[in-house]
Amino acid sequence: MLPNKLQGVIFDLDDTLVSSTLNFNKIKSYLDCPLDIDLLDFLDGKPQTERGIIEQKLIDYEISEAASSVKLKGTDSVLTLLHDLNMPIAIVTRNCREAALIKINNNNLNIPILISREEHQAKPAPDALLFLANQWNISPENLLYVGDYLYDIQAAINANTMSCLVTHGNTLDYAHLATLVVNELTDLQKIIENTHGV
Questions:
Q1: Is 71 helix (H, G, I), strand (E, B) or coil?
Q2: Which of 150, 173, 184, 187 has minimal CB crowding within 10 Å?
């Protein structure tokens, strides 16, 4: 169960709401980024002219992958529930905005707010989550950030929001850091229904 009153939900995009075939080790190799360095940190460390060239290659790669994404199990039903509860929802992703919009539009995701890495410092930084808390006038501890990776949980911790880790049945060594751990979004839907007496 959730420790605090739930007043808003923020979702990661890839492998949370929609599928992704992005292979980050392959992308790093393609961009000559060392495997032990975060891709966006690698970009930040480059001189401006070189960074622009590398970043465009990354964006092109992301856009080419975006068209193949499909909705994951439970996406439609959990979004319908949140809309029925009149709960504010948003997406915060490390994707570029253009690729994220392709995935959102192709999969008819009814989520009004998208924050990509162009708007705020990328996860695990808390900036985007805190921005939404301020916009919605909701205390961060009453927000839930839902994602499938360590950066999602770290961003939630850094923003002092609740977190939900979607594992898709995998054993993840950082699962203990999350407020909730579920196999699929259908499990999260049941928890929210029970919490709100639906």
A1: strand
A2: 173
